[in-house]
Hints:
Blueprint: E1 2-3, H1 5-18, H2 23-38, H3 43-52, H4 61-75, E2 79-84, H5 89-95, E3 103-110, E4 115-121, E5 124-128, E6 136-141, E7 150-152, E8 161-162, H6 165-176, H7 184-188
Antiparallel strand pairs: 1-8, 2-6, 3-4, 3-6, 4-5, 5-7
Helix pairs in contact: 1-2, 1-6, 2-3, 2-5, 4-5
Amino acid sequence: xxxxxxxxxxxxxxxxxxxxxxxxxxxxxxxxxxxxxxxxxxxxxxxxxxxxxxxxxxxxxxxxxxxxxxxxxxxxxxxxxxxxxxxxxxxxxxxxxxxxxxxxxxxxxxxxxxxxxxxxxxxxxxxxxxxxxxxxxxxxxxxxxxxxxxxxxxxxxxxxxxxxxxxxxxxxxxxxxxxxxxxxxxxxxxxxxxxxxxx
Length: 199
């Protein structure tokens, strides 16, 4: 099924909030999700992995990722953490950081020794080929000299992104946790409109 980038971002934000992620971090994750989708990466399974692992926030990419970016922006020193589930989300977190680091390399390393490296230099974002899977160690550092196997990451899906229907339903189930029951008791406690139209 195809969903728009706006729908992907808004539903991703609600799903993160439904899992207990604080609002600001949920917004960061949702922007990263949309960026990954726009770049042609399998974004939705990555966020679902991160949300299912949020039971332990102290080791979650949703918390550690933005914190590491902030520390890198402040002191410019290498940051290393992990392993984290949904580590590919880190690429979107860096690309959408505000202010975005002018020069940074993100390296993801999985248990099989596979690596993916993204470099941000000014407005250019390049991604070295690499298929990482599962929990990854994550490192942020100033970028080394460029490698040959790089591609510039650009928007490749202006008409939205293709997502698996099962993944989309799982995301909507997380987002539904933010809703209140549609019954008289919840309305009496202030949810929704009043009992009559003039309330």
